[in-house]
Amino acid sequence: MGPPHIRVAHGHRSLDGARRLHRIHELKPRSPPLNAEPADQIRLLEVQALDSRIGQLDHKRRNLPEHAELERLNADVTQLRDLLVAAQTEESDTAREQTKAEQDVDLVRQRAVRDQQRLDSGAVTSPKDLENLQHEIVSLAKRQSDLEDVVLEVMERRESMQERVGELSGRLGSVEAKAADAEIRKAKAVQELDAGSFTAAKEREIVAGAVPADLLKLYDKLRAQSGGIGAARLYQKRCEGCRLELNITELNEVRTAPANSVVRCENCRRILVRTPESGL
Questions:
Q1: Strand order across the beta sheet in which 231-235 lies
Q2: Could you give the CA distance from residue 271 to residue 221 in angstroms, rounded to a whole number?
Q3: 226, 270 in Cβ contact below 8 A?
C-alpha cells in the first residue's frame, strides 16, 4: 500500500479527468449540424402552414356541432321509441281487456233475454220458480250494469292510451325528422371538410417534394414530438412555436449563424426559420 500523499494525488488526477470529460460532453452538439438553403427553410414554413391547416380541418371534423346534436337526438329517439312501445303494449292489453268485458256483458244480456222470454211465455207456473226467475232477472240486470261500467272504464283507459300513442308517435316523428336533417347537415359539412383536407394534402405533397429530404425528416420528427408544430418563424425576436422571446445570447447565436444553417429554438427545440421580420 503506497504513501497517503500518492493516493490523494491519484484521486485528484481522476477528478480532473472526469471534469474534462464532462466539459467535452457539454461542448458536444445536441444534434448533427444541418444545412439548408434559406428558400428551402421558407418553403418548410409553407409545409407547416399546410399541416396546420390539415390538422385544423381534422379537428373541426371531429368536433362538428352536429355530432353532439345527433347524439342528443338519437338518445331522444331511443327513449321515445321505448315509451311508444310501452304505450302501444298497454293500449293493446287494454283493447283485449275491453273485448273481454264486452263479451261478458253480451253473455249476461243474452241470459237475461232468455229468462225474460221464459217469464213472458207462461211456461213457468210454479210460484217458487217464478220468484226465482224474477230474482235472477233482477240479479242479471245488476250484473249487466256493473259490467257495462267496467266496459266504460276500460274504454276510457284505452282512449287515454290511444291519445298517448298518438302523442308519442308525433313527437318521435318530429325528433326523427330533426335527426335526419342533422345527418344531412353533418354529411355536407364532412364532405366540404374532406374536400379541403384533400386539396391541402395534395398541395402539401407538392411543396414538401421541393424540401430537402433530411430537412423534411427532421421537421416531421419534431412535429410529431411537439404537438404538430415542427418549424416556426422567428418574428420580432420571438419564436412563434413556443411564443417565447429569445434572449440576447440566443439572438446573437442566430444572428451570426450562416444563412444556410438550420437553427433551433433553445426553448422548444423546433426549427427556427429566419425571415426579414425576425428582428435580427
A1: 238-239, 231-235, 271-274, 263-264
A2: 11
A3: yes
Cell 421580420 belongs to residue: 277
Give DSSP secondary structure letters for 148-194: HHHHHHHHHHHHHHHHHHHHHHHHHHHHHHHHHHHHHHHHHHHHHHH
CB-based contacts of 53, cutoff 8 Å, min separation 6: 196, 200
8 Å CB contact between 239 and 190: no
- 214-243 tens-digit pLDDT: 999 999 999 999 999 999 999 999 999 999
Burial category of 16 from C-beta neighbours within 10 Å (exposed 0-12, middle 13-18, buried 19 and up) = exposed
Q: What is the pLDDT of residues 89-122, one digit of tens each?
A: 999 999 999 999 999 999 999 999 998 998 888 8
Which one, of 226, 235, 218, lies nearest residue 267 by Cα? 226
**Exposure of 214 in the CB half-sphere (CA atoms within 13 A):** 8
Contact 140, 90 (CB under 8 A): no
Domains of the chain: 31-62+212-280 (no CATH), 64-192 (1.10.287.1700)
pTM: 0.68
> In this structure, which amino acid lies at residue 99?
T
Which helix H or strand E contains 119, and what residues bound it?
Answer: helix 65-121
State which H helix or E strand residue 275 sits in. none
193: which residues sit within 8 A by CB, 6+ positions away? 57, 60, 61
